[in-house]
Every structure is written in C-alpha cells, then in structure tokens.
Amino acid sequence: MNIPLIDLKAQYKSLEKELNEVTIDVLSSANYIMGKNVSEFEKEFSDYIGVEHSISVGNGTDALVIALKAMGIGEGDEVITSTFTFFASAESISAVGATPVFVDVKKDTFNIDPDKIEEKITDKTKAIIPVHIFGQCADMDEINKIAKKHNLYVLEDACQAIGGEYKGRKVGTLGDMACFSFFPTKNLGCAGDGGMIVTNNHKLATIATALRTHGSGENGQKAYNLLNDIQEEVKKAEGANDTVYNPLKYYNYLIGFNSRLDAMQAAILRVKLKEIDKWNNKRREVVDIYNESFKGLNVQTPIAREDIKHVYHMYILQSEERESVLEDLKEKGIATGVYYPVPLHLQKVYKNLGYKEGDFPNAEYLSHRTFAIPVYPELTSEQVNYIIDSVKNSCK
Ligand SMILES: *Cc1c(COP(=O)(O)O)cnc(C)c1O
C-alpha cells in the first residue's frame, strides 16, 4: 500500500464539484486581482479567527515580512525566534534587514522555551516571533508577559496552526499580529501560494494593507497619515475600481510590496474554510488512535498540553534509530518526512551570526530524532491500521 505524507488529490476529490464551480466563476468573471472573493474571504477569516482585521497576501513568508515591516522593524533591530522551525520564520526577519536571534526549544512540545528568552533581549530587540510548531501553540502567556515587560511586539507565526487554541482562545488572537500560510500542504491550503496577516491593531492593519500593494492609493495615504500624525480624511477616488482602474493607484506613500492573494485562491479558500474544524477534528481522531497504538513501543509519541488544542499539522515521532525506521516505512510504501534536519542556528546561510554546534542542545537533539508520519483528514481506517502495523513492526 502506498500512503503519501499528505493526499491533496483526496482533498480535492472531497470538494471537487464546489471547487470547480468557484474556480470557473472567477475565471469567467475576469476579476482576478482583489475584488469580492478576496474581501469576503478576509471577512470570513476574521470571523473565524475572531479578529478585527485580516489582510490577505501572496504567501506566509510575505505575511511575516509585511507584518514585521508594519511594526517598523528593520536595519539594526533584533527579533527573537525559535531555532527549530521552518526557515521562513527567520528569513522574514533577515528580509526586512533585522537580525534573527535564536532561542532553544522545549524538548516536550518543540516550542520556544520562554525561560530562555529574556537572556537574549538587548536594547536592539523589537519583537518576539513564537512559532506554533507542528500545530501546537507556544507558551503565549509567558511570552506575552516577557514582551510586555520589555515593550516588545509579539508576532505569532501561526502558519502551521490554523484553528488551534490556547486556553480557550484561538491561535492568531494571542499577540499583536499573526501570520498564516495557505501553502497547499498546510491544514488550510489553496491551489497555489497564499497567506494572511491578522490583527486587532488598527494602525498595524492600515500599514500592512498599504504595504501589500506598493504603499499606494487610498490605503497608502491612510498609512502615511497615521505614520506622520496627519489628521485628514482620505476619500476614495470618484469611479475607482480596484481591479481595473483606480486613479489613486499611481500615488505612492510607502515603499511596499506586490503581494496579494489571487481571487481564484480566495474563492477556493472560502470553500475550504468551511471544512477546517472538521478536518482538524479528523486529524485529532487519527492522532488519538496513533498515540494509543504506539504505547510501549520503542518510539516517542508527541506530547500535547491539556490546555492547548493541537491541530497536528504534523504528527511527529522520535526514535534513536530514525534512519532504519524511515527505511522500513519506505519499504512498506509509507511516506515520511524529517522536520527539521538542521536547526536554523546551524544553517550555512546564518554562519555569519556566529552560532555553533552545542548552542541549542534541545533543538539539536530533536533534529537527529524526529520524523513525521502521515496524518490528514482523508486517511481511511485501512490506511491508519496499515501505518500502525508498520510502525509497530519497525519500532518493537
Ligand atoms: C509554511 C510556513 C511558513 C511560510 O509560509 P509560505 O506560505 O510557504 O511562505 C512560515 N512559517 C512556518 C512555521 C511555516 O510552516
């Protein structure tokens, strides 16, 4: 039996008719940039997360870059983040000209260790980016407490954790801003690239909205006025149409980006957003069966905190004999993945930052042991049983 790490074809099949319809609708409407599907999706996303502002962008990495820029972070600033995450969490910091400052993770949850943050704070530190890794929310109360004490922004990297909760509060509402990714393999994925910034902060939302479209037009002017303390009413241009012609578009107020969510992706995401809670529940059901079945084996199952609703973007096991287990599973036709083989402080590209092996023992330890097995809503019980039998065989 061949089982992929995630089955996007099965996901498509489950919604085929509706997805085809909305895609053709956008295609035939000839409204490809911004417009109704984008604004409606942003509204629906805000309602779902429980925030005031959702600003859709081209991908999750751009979401982080634009959010940091909106916070005014750049050259000479430092931003603290986890060393055990996808590269974009730190790349975004470098992309705005600031320096990523890495912190080790906790061995049990793989999330940034709040006890090790404060020693890294300097007078250049401007923000903390906690990453809700593999779908489990970071220790936000402790992180927010430190941020408040030192007057730092908190930007949640929630790219792997849509729908997750922390002490009854939704991921995305726990810091100053949060970023999501709609990369196809994420829990909520589109048919290409996509991302979202959310916030309850009106000023940050206004600046981020301006930055995603060249800092131009009405949004650019509003952001400019906010940044320069100018009290002035900004009016929409007569006859303005965002998608075809808007005379204000050719007036620029900030150096921004061109990073928008395509109307086609927005239409697809509107269909899929309705499924996300059901999908996350299915993931948790599979995980419960895995955890129960792997008890007593020579493999460590992931730990989920009681007060956190984990959405299992990945189901991460640990083994001392990882390479041979992966080889066994491959032979059985079961796809696996290693997340993450190199902690960010040891990436070649960050050599100049001066970190060395041994700096963050937990992340380094995990990087040699962790691996992911398939967990997705469309897994059949036959597939789940086959995976369980194969892991049991290999991890006796
Ligand atoms: C996927 C991901 C991103 C980047 O999202 P893209 O849409 O691929 O740019 C950032 N951070 C984390 C933790 C991710 O998993």
Which structural class fits the helix and strand makeup? alpha/beta
Q: What's the total helix number?
A: 13
Amount of helix? 25-40%
Assess the beta-strand content as a share of residues.
Answer: 5-15%
Q: Please identify, by name, the CATH architecture of the largest domain.
A: 3-Layer(aba) Sandwich
Keywords: Aminotransferase, Pyridoxal phosphate, Transferase
InterPro entries: DegT/StrS_aminotransferase, PyrdxlP-dep_Trfase, PyrdxlP-dep_Trfase_major, PyrdxlP-dep_Trfase_small
Active site: 186
Modified residues (N6-(pyridoxal phosphate)lysine): 186
Layout of secondary structure:
Blueprint: H1 8-14, H2 16-29, H3 36-49, E1 53-57, H4 60-70, E2 78-82, H5 88-95, E3 99-103, E4 125-129, H6 140-150, E5 153-157, E6 165-166, E7 169-170, E8 177-181, E9 195-199, H7 202-212, H8 217-227, H9 263-273, H10 276-293, E10 308-309, E11 315-318, H11 322-331, H12 361-367, E12 370-373, H13 381-394
Parallel strand pairs: 2-3, 2-4, 4-5, 5-8
Antiparallel strand pairs: 1-9, 6-7, 6-10, 8-9, 11-12
Helix pairs in contact: 2-9, 3-9, 4-5, 4-7, 7-8, 11-13
The chain binds pyridoxal-5'-phosphate (PLP).
Pyridoxal-5'-phosphate (PLP) binds next to helix 4 and helix 5.
